[in-house]
Amino acid sequence: PGVTVLLRDFEDFENDLTGTARSFASLPVPVLVVAETAPYPPVPLPVGVNLLLLRPAADRPPPLARPELHVRTRHVALVPDGTRPVPGLLERMRDALEEGAGDTRLVAAPVGSVPLRCLELRLEARAWTARYGPGAPGVCRAVEGTAVLLLRTRDLFALPFPLARPVPTALFVQAAFRGWGLRVMPAAFPAARRPPVSPHGRWKAENLAETRRRRLMRDLGVKREVLADGRERWYGCSKETARCFGTVHARTPQYLLAGRWTPPCCLRALRETARHVTGALEAAGVRYWLEGGSLLGAVRLGDIIPWDYDVDLGIYREDAGKCRWLAAVAAAGEPVEDAEGFLWEKAAEGDFYRVHYSRSNRLHVDLWPFYPRGGVMTKDTWLGHPQDVEFPESFLRPRVPMPFAGFTAMAPNNARAFLELKFGPGAVENPEYPNPAVKRLGQD
Fold first, then answer.
1. How confident is the model at residue 100 (pLDDT cuts 50, 70, 90)?
2. What's the burial of 134, exposed, middle or buried (CB within 10 Å: 0-12/13-18/19+)?
3. DSSP string covering 157-178, please?
4. Alpha-carbon distances, residue 241 vs 225, 246, 355, 361 (angstroms)
5. How confident is the model at residue 68 (pLDDT cuts 50, 70, 90)?
6. Do 49 and 27 touch, CB atoms closer than 8 A?
């Protein structure tokens, strides 16, 4: 019986840890301060308040191998720093949890005078995305605002990241993966009167919070959050980092084998690169068209296929010299970075070009030089892909505009016939992964 209070979300500097611990210990309930390492500067904890250190040490047992050694009550409450108790409120939260019907596994109560805002939280694991929206009363999956969170001890320590920070986000996302419901109590805990945080303290806290949130999202497999107001937070790759996945083997990226699709940050980078490259080609008068899987995505979705990892464009070989960047690559014999940080190069695998998102991030657009021979478009490099075949030049006379990845690109004039020539009958209506011999779409 009873509830153990866990104090986890606090900073080592300018905190109210002593006051918060003392006030809850006076109820009395067990209080446990949880931290990676002992707070520094040292914090004088009241008698009976224990410290649980999470960072493993060679001379100690794993800290969470046996959580029952630290928490002996059936319920735990994760209490934010600077909260003050209300006698009986923890017990009422516990009773609400045990009396709750259905999937309720979490109970939240506000801290301070601002009510909590109930949110819906939908996880799109395959798309690496957490999407928030307004919640219906009594059907919350998350809350906005400072809150005490209560749940069963066994539920907390069954989570893969039971004490990750920030605590509310970590619990809400892991709970949403499991379909747990959240009940919100109207009664509030008071917030302590505290002196204003110094500008330096605020700067440190904001930087630490951002670092923790990024680490948490990496651990949870979330690369994009869509907030209830429509804003987005991104946690994946950027122009300054490597892409999210390594070398692709057998046309099957590692994320497909893990049951996921292309990370949204990678798709965003591919869209930017495709827009940039087609703009440069159009400005130079280079005739190009969407090729292969990129054309397939344009016809199906007006976008990149959600599991694709590059963009393919065909170009007329005789036009390549019109583009200053392709001409520069040919003249220099080495990669050339343009004014916006995209890297143009001759591909090592054969007679074609590749444009990378940046020197660091190797998400790319491939440019395949074709030339007409007897009314048929052919090229000098064939990589053995099933769709890598010659085709009548009549598909390019004329080329036609087609929506793709947020802009308008040029495409063959009979896209369906072109795709069925390359991929076989029913290619548009029957989506499939790039290499079904390794993994099929229906196996997810």
1. confident
2. exposed
3. HHSSSTT-SSHHHHHHHHHHHH
4. 19, 13, 16, 6
5. confident
6. no
